[in-house]
């Protein structure tokens, strides 16, 4: 049997298990990657909101990375909540040097939780912009793209397409998955931009309020699947397909009274629309 890839999440903790490190590790396991994790922050959080935040000192984020990477070869890395400019600077240094520079990297520029609570210092936005060109893929939602580009939020797919291109042109992103989940409508449409152009990625919108951690889950699915797929396009397509499956059975979990988690147990759907 082939060795599973090793995927690393550098992110914050969500005790309710729907987002952050907990979502990432469940996603890695479900999609066949061995999960490793470096914590940037502890949140006191449930499905209704965030009540507290305890950020790990940047020097200790560096020590976690140093010790892990001195021993373990990481195939793919997902960057989630980075909390402040000092942690972004540490992560940037690691991402620019071996061994992480040769791992497949996914930057989810987490700024605000689904509940509306802030997860990144205002002062760190500039630092995140500088991290953008180093990641193989960035996965902003509509609000995060607007902040990164310093303009108003896209309100339709045409604007998503324009902003995805601009994130490459103006910020130097290598590849962009601009998520349109918050646009509404019968389909959840994301936009993919890379060297070969811009394409849309559509899925039927699932009627559920259980969308806590969709962004975390999608970006960690990319870090789990990229070493197991031939290229980024097939990786993105399959990650979105699995996320849609995980959303479609989310209501059965009945975790919490707010925006509950997606169903990380969901089997990987086959091309015929069946489950494995
Ligand atoms: N109700 C839904 N049904 C299907 N897909 C959804 C739904 N809500 C969000 N998505 C998808 O989940 C992913 C996360 O998107 P989004 O909600 O925009 O980002 P974030 O979770 O970072 O705010 C995207 O692929 C988006 O299209
Ligand atoms: C620790 C942590 N990291 C990230 C998110 C964002 O979650 P979402 O994927 O819903 O945007 C979160 N709520 N908590």
TrEMBL record:
GO cellular component terms attached to this protein's record: cytosol
Residue intervals of the Pyridoxamine kinase/Phosphomethylpyrimidine kinase domain: 14-263
Keyword Repeat in record: no
Swiss-Prot/TrEMBL catalytic activity: 4-amino-5-hydroxymethyl-2-methylpyrimidine + ATP = 4-amino-2-methyl-5-(phosphooxymethyl)pyrimidine + ADP + H(+); 4-amino-2-methyl-5-(phosphooxymethyl)pyrimidine + ATP = 4-amino-2-methyl-5-(diphosphooxymethyl)pyrimidine + ADP
Keywords linked to the UniProt accession: ATP-binding, Kinase, Nucleotide-binding, Thiamine biosynthesis, Transferase
Pfam families cross-referenced by the UniProt entry: Phos_pyr_kin
Keyword Repeat in annotation: no
Any GO molecular function: ATP binding
Designated gene of the protein: thiD
Name of the protein in its database record: Bifunctional hydroxymethylpyrimidine kinase/phosphomethylpyrimidine kinase
UniProt organism field: Enemella dayhoffiae
Domain of life from the UniProt record: Bacteria
Pathway info: Cofactor biosynthesis; thiamine diphosphate biosynthesis; 4-amino-2-methyl-5-diphosphomethylpyrimidine from 5-amino-1-(5-phospho-D-ribosyl)imidazole: step 3/3
């Amino acid at each position: 049997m082939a060795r599973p890839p090793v995927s690393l999440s550098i992110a914050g903790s969500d005790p309710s298990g729907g987002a952050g490190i907990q979502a990432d590790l469940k996603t890695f396991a479900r999609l066949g990657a061995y999960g490793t994790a470096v914590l940037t922050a502890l949140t006191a959080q449930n499905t209704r909101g965030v009540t507290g935040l305890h950020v790990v000192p940047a020097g200790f984020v560096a020590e976690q990375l140093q010790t892990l990477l001195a021993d373990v070869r990481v195939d793919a890395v997902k960057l989630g909540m980075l909390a402040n400019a000092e942690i972004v600077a540490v992560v940037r240094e690691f991402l620019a040097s071996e061994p992480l520079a040769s791992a497949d990297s996914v930057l989810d520029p987490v700024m605000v939780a689904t509940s509306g609570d802030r997860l990144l210092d205002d002062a760190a936005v500039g630092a995140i912009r500088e991290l953008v060109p180093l990641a193989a893929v960035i996965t902003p939602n509509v609000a995060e793209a607007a902040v990164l580009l310093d303009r108003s939020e896209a309100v339709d797919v045409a604007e998503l397409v324009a902003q995805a291109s601009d994130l490459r042109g103006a910020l130097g992103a290598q590849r962009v998955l601009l998520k349109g989940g918050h646009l509404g409508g019968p389909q959840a449409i994301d936009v993919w931009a890379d060297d070969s152009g811009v394409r849309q990625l559509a899925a039927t919108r699932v009627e559920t309020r259980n969308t806590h951690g969709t962004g975390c889950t999608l970006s960690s699915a990319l870090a789990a699947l990229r070493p197991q797929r031939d290229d980024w396009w097939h990786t993105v397509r399959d990650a979105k397909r699995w996320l849609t499956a995980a959303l479609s059975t989310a209501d059965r979990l009945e975790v919490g009274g707010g925006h509950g988690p997606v169903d990380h147990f969901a089997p990987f759907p086959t091309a015929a629309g069946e489950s494995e």
